[in-house]
């Protein structure tokens, strides 16, 4: 469905290589998770798929067509078949929910206002938000905003949905709700989904296939079925870290920090040098 062939994306005249010779296949109808630490190149790679960020070299194929070989006008047309949602929802604040959804239809060339409204309401219905159509983003919860963004992405009837950290701004319960909508959209509308995240929970809950990125390159790939098996061992350190159970901190360690003398003990502070008056003056200044 999606095929990236030797895709490389550099910035600053080649000083930064965000995506480094990536070849990746995403199966039609699957949910493909891309995971990695901050700066690994996940967002750049995702934006390479719809050419929001045109790769410096390599080919991008979607649905049997080489996007990297299309004219600007052809590309504009094809882009409507690829929806996208973001961590920060990216809604227009002075537009109602339904007007936000209509925007994508306007960009897709749907000129009839009634048609746009009808299709926008249909898309909001999909995410159970038709009753909030007239609400402005500020009147919606984070989860509802992301559902409006999903409706906006779906309104043009895409066959691919790209999601960049779709739940990173949401609490765990709301995350589960939004992920359920994405799973339903995949199962019931047959839309292929690529989801970029640094949250292993999202991958475990949603993805069929997993790609691990580090320093712009793919370092490991596995299926979530493999991931669920007790005997599964990722072969890269980053893969192991990502599937490990959350953050672990060794509390009460000693002798690992180089502590400057002034911070070493509380008694070192020369209490006599700070008078009560000094303290009062300082506090007053801060207060003002
Ligand atoms: N427009 C840009 N100009 C210059 N450098 C960029 C640009 N976009 C991304 N980069 C750099 O490319 C690298 C990959 O960035 P990218 O945003 O793809 O990472 P990421 O994996 O999505 O990280 P995060 O998890 O923090 O979102 C980083 O070093 C980043 O600073
Ligand atoms: Mg990112």
Q: What is the total number of structural domains? A: 2
Which CATH class of the largest domain? Answer: Alpha Beta
Query: Treating each run of at least 4 consecutive H or I residues as one helix, how many helices?
Result: 11
Q: Determine the fraction of residues in helical runs and give it as a percent range.
A: 25-40%
Q: Which sequence of strands runs across the widest sheet?
A: 6-7-8-3-9-10
Beta strands, count? 10
Mean pLDDT, rounded to whole units?
89
Per CATH, the superfamily of the largest domain is P-loop containing nucleotide triphosphate hydrolases
User: Major beta sheet, specifics?
Assistant: 6 strands, mixed
Keywords: Amino-acid transport, ATP-binding, Cell membrane, Membrane, Nucleotide-binding, Translocase, Transport
Protein name: ATP-binding cassette domain-containing protein
Pfam family, one: ABC_tran
Domain ABC transporter: 2-240
In short:
The chain has 288 residues and is an alpha/beta fold.
Describe this entry's structure for a reader.
The chain is 37% helix and 22% strand. It is α/β, with parallel strands linked by helices. The protein has 2 domains: 165 residues, 3-Layer(aba) Sandwich (Rossmann fold), CATH 3.40.50.300; 57 residues, no CATH class. The protein is globular and about 75 Å long. The termini are far apart. 34% of the residues are buried. The site of adenosine-5'-triphosphate has 13 residues, from strand 2 and helix 1.
């Amino acid at each position: 469905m999606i095929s990236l062939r030797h895709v490389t994306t550099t910035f600053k005249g080649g000083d930064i290589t965000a995506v480094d010779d990536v070849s990746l296949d995403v199966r039609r109808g699957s949910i493909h998770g891309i995971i990695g630490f901050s700066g690994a190149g996940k967002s750049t790679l995702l934006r390479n798929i719809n050419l929001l960020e045109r790769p410096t070299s390599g080919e991008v194929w979607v649905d049997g067509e080489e996007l990297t070989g299309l004219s600007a006008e052809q590309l504009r047309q094809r882009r409507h078949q690829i929806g996208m949602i973001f961590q920060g929802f990216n809604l227009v604040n002075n537009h109602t929910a339904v007007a936000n959804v209509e925007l994508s239809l306007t960009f897709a060339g749907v000129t009839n206002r009634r048609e746009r409204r009808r299709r926008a309401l249909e898309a909001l219905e999909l995410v159970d938000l038709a009753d909030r159509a007239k609400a402005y983003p500020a009147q919606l919860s984070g989860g509802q905003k992301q559902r409006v963004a999903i409706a906006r992405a779906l309104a043009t009837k895409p066959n691919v949905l790209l999601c960049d950290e779709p739940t990173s701004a949401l609490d765990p319960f709301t995350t589960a709700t939004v992920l359920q909508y994405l799973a339903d959209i995949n199962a019931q509308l047959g839309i292929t989904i690529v989801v970029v995240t640094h949250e292993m929970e999202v991958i475990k809950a949603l993805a069929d296939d997993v790609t691990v990125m580090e320093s712009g390159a793919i370092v490991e790939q596995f299926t979530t079925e493999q991931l669920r098996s007790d005997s599964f061992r990722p072969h890269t350190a980053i893969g192991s870290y990502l599937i490990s159970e959350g953050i672990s901190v060794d509390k009460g360690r000693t002798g690992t920090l180089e502590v400057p003398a002034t911070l070493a003990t509380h008694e070192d502070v020369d209490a006599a040098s700070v008078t009560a008056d000094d303290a009062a003056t300082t506090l007053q200044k801060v207060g003002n």
